[in-house]
Structure formats: structure tokens, C-alpha cells
Amino acid sequence: MECDKCSRDAVMHAGYSGAHLCEDHFCASVDKRVRRRIREDSMLPSDATPEDPETWVIGLSGGKDSVVLTHILDETFGKDPRIEMIALTIHEGIEGYRDKSVDACVELADDLDMRHELVTYEDEIGVKMDDVAEKDPMDMAPCAYCGVFRRDLLERFADEYGADKLLTGHNLDDEAETALMNFLEGDVKQVAKHFDASIGGFDDRNEQDDFIPRAKPLRDVPEKEVALYAHLKDLPAHITECPHASEAFRGEIQELMLKLEENHPGTRHSIMAGYEELAHLAAERYRGDGDDGEGPDLNECERCGSMTARDVCRKCKLVEAIEAV
Ligand code: SF4
Ligand code: ZN
């Protein structure tokens, strides 16, 4: 099959758009989608100057998504004196898994000459995921603890580095899966929160000094295309599965989504288009609703100082339960 734009061999076919693209045109189309997303999410710094640049903290795990994100951000903004980028890697304390991906992060940051910071659950929270998975005091999946800890550290360190934005590598599949899970769980508040956290929510969030605006510039790019891009560009991505990966529900949704996408190409895109509109409405419904715990009634956690709607934040509660075992 030939590329739609030139006569070279196509390396990919996108069912949802019908496009066949060669290596160069495929990579250019990924770059273009990411840059468009950054523009449309109003991420470009409006009043930053070379003397007073913006700081962008990128969550870099060493997996293909965050590696591709970091690469494209560096290509696009690496020479822009108005933006300083810091790659932040979080080590969960998972034997034989995270060490290799940390190597990939170090290699990439070196290649790009980007500031790189590494923080660990063990140093910052006093737990390792391997121990958490074994103790499991709350009878939950390991990812349920891990997600809370990761979010806490990302926010805490982004804040410490003076981040104006916190960027993560969620791709289209991740986002469509999360959207579907929120629907199926009937969790409208989560939908609203998702909006505030990632979907054009910058303006609203900027009014609240306590939050660092989040962005997911890869959210228009399907997972397979992110993987192909990493491969074609020979990026140092680390691809193995975490031994504690256990989100059973997400696994089912993934299978369902693959089938839907195969039979009805474009399903992920249409889920996200509808979801964004609904999330908008949901965010309006819940914004300022102080009783829901997600409105403006936030205070500092008594133990760690993180912003929380309770006296003690979820992370501190989990740590307490783990330490009690
Ligand atoms: Fe943590 Fe789950 Fe990811 Fe493993 S798969 S790193 S336990 S969130
Ligand atoms: Zn706390």
C-alpha cells in the first residue's frame, strides 16, 4: 500500500480515518495532532518571557507514552526560551520493573539535555509498592494505592519545582477507557473532575491557586500509533508490564474497546467528543458546589499539607493503614 501523500510505502493504516501513511508522513501527523492539542488547550504561555519563563513539569515514566510526549515537547519547545521543561520520574518500588524504565528516562533526558528529577515512594511516602501489594490492608487492587501515591507525588513535586503546568502522557485509548469506566460506574462527579483536570480546564483551574493545571497532549493519538512512533523514532521506551497491573475492570473495558474499534472504527474518538461535552456540563453542575467535596472547600491535610476535602488526605489514610499491618 502506498502513502496517501507520497509514493512511499505506507507503514500504517488508520481505520478511523482511512489514512495510509509512510513513516515520515505518519510521524508528522502525530506531531501535528499533539501540537494542535497544545494550542487548543490554551497551553501556550501567553505572558511568559525569556526572563520570566513558564515551567512545565512532564511526568516521565519511561513507558512509550511519556517518552513520546517528552520527545515531541522537546522538539517543539526545546529551544523556546519562554518555557523550561523538567522531566519528573516516580519510582514506585517495584522490583525489576521500574529500574529499567528509570534507565530509559535517564537516557532520554540525557539525549535531550533536559533537567530530570527522580523521586521514590520509599523516600517520600515511606512505602514500596511491592510491600503495599503484599500487605494490602484495604483489600484493594495495587493500582488503587499506587494511583493515589503517584498523583500525590506528581502534584507535590510539580509544586516544589514551581510548575505552571503538569503534563502527562495519557493517550486516546487511556482516555476513552477512563471515560467509559466513569459512565459505566455512573460516576458523574468523576466526569466533572476529569474535565477540570485535563479538558480545557486551564482557565477555571488558574483561578484556584492550589492546583497546577494539568494537560494530556497525547490524548488524540491512539495507543498503537504512540507505540509505532516510539519504534520508528527509535526512542528509549521501556515496554514491559508491571507485575502488579491488576485493574480488572480496565482490562475488560480494553477488550471491549478493541472490539468496538475494530467493528466500528472511530468509536474512541466519538466517545471522547461526547465525553468532553458532557464533562463540560458536569463541571458546571458541580463547580462551586461546596457540599460535594470537590468544589472549593479544600484545606490542607493535617499530616502532609496536601490539598484535600477531608481533615486527613487519602494518601495519608492509606499510608496509615499500611503501617498498621
Ligand atoms: Fe502502579 Fe498499577 Fe501502574 Fe503497577 S500497574 S505501576 S501498581 S498503577
Ligand atoms: Zn496527607
From TrEMBL:
Residues 56-234 form the tRNA(Ile)-lysidine/2-thiocytidine synthase N-terminal domain. Keywords: ATP-binding, Metal-binding, Nucleotide-binding, Transferase, Zinc. Coiled coil: none annotated. GO terms for molecular function: ATP binding; metal ion binding; transferase activity; tRNA binding. This is TIGR00269 family protein. ATP binds at G59, L60, S61, D65, I90, G169, D174. Zn(2+) 1 binds at C3, C6, C22, H25. InterPro entries: CTU1-like_ATP-bd (IPR056369), Ncs6/Tuc1/Ctu1 (IPR000541), Rossmann-like_a/b/a_fold (IPR014729), TilS/TtcA_N (IPR011063), tRNA_thiolation_TtcA_Ctu1 (IPR035107), TtuA-like_LIM_N (IPR054306). GO terms for biological process: tRNA wobble position uridine thiolation. It comes from Halogranum gelatinilyticum. Zn(2+) 2 binds at C301, C304, C313, C316. Pfam families: ATP_bind_3, TtuA_LIM_N. It comes from the Archaea. GO terms for cellular component: cytosolic tRNA wobble base thiouridylase complex. Residues 2-27 form the 2-thiouridine synthetase TtuA-like N-terminal LIM domain.
